C-alpha cells in the first residue's frame, strides 16, 4: 500500500511540473507572437509594455522613440529560440528590414533579444530593449 501511495504522489508531482512547464512555454509563445506583431506593425509604443520594468538602461528616451518611429517594418524573420545563460531566460535573434519614411531607404538590422520569465508576475519580459537602429 505504501508503494502505491508513493507512486501516486510522484505521478501527481511529475504531471503538475509538466503542466507548469507547458504553461510557461505557452506563455512564451504568446508573448513572442504578440511582440512580433507589434513590431511588424511598427507599433513601438505598444511593444514597450514588454520591456522589463524598472530597468532604466533599456527604456528608450523620447528622442530614441521618435527616431525609431521614422522606420516602418517591412520584414521580421525570427530565428529559433535558444536557452539563456540562466534558468528562465531565452534568447532569440531576429532579422528586421526597416523602411525609412523620410529618406525612402531600406536597411536591415539584427535584433538580439533576451527574454526573462518573471515568476511573480507569470510573464515574460524583454531584457534588451527595442530594436537598435545602429
Comma- or semicolon-separated keywords:
134 residues, alpha+beta, Nuclear Transport Factor 2, Chain: A, five-stranded antiparallel β-sheet, 3 helices, 37% helix, 29% strand, globular
Quick structural overview:
The protein is α+β, with helices and mostly antiparallel strands and 134 residues long. The protein has three helices and five strands, in the order H-H-H-E-E-E-E-E.
Structure description:
It is a single chain. This protein has 134 residues and is of the alpha+beta class. It has one domain (2-126): Nuclear Transport Factor 2, Chain: A (Roll), CATH 3.10.450. The chain has 3 helices and 5 strands, in the order αααβββββ. The chain has helices spanning 2-40, 44-47, 62-68; strands at 71-78, 82-83, 89-100, 106-118, 123-126. Strands 1, 2, 3, 4 and 5 form a 5-stranded antiparallel beta sheet that branches. A hairpin with a 4-residue loop joins strand 4 (106-118) and strand 5. It is globular, with a radius of gyration of 19 Å. The model is unreliable at 6-18 (pLDDT under 50).
Amino acid at each position: 500500500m505504501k508503494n502505491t501511495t508513493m507512486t501516486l504522489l510522484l505521478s501527481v508531482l511529475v504531471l503538475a511540473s509538466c503542466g507548469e512547464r507547458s504553461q510557461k512555454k505557452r506563455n512564451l509563445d504568446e508573448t513572442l507572437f504578440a511582440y512580433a506583431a507589434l513590431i511588424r506593425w511598427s507599433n513601438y509604443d505598444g511593444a514597450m509594455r514588454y520591456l522589463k520594468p524598472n530597468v532604466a538602461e533599456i527604456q528608450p528616451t523620447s528622442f530614441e522613440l521618435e527616431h525609431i518611429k521614422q522606420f516602418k517594418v517591412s520584414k521580421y524573420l525570427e530565428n529559433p529560440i535558444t536557452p539563456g545563460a540562466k534558468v528562465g531566460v531565452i534568447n532569440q535573434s531576429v532579422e528586421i528590414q526597416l523602411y525609412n519614411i523620410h529618406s525612402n531607404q531600406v536597411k536591415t538590422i539584427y535584433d538580439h533579444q533576451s527574454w526573462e520569465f518573471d515568476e511573480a508576475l507569470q510573464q515574460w519580459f524583454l531584457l534588451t530593449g527595442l530594436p537598435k537602429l545602429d
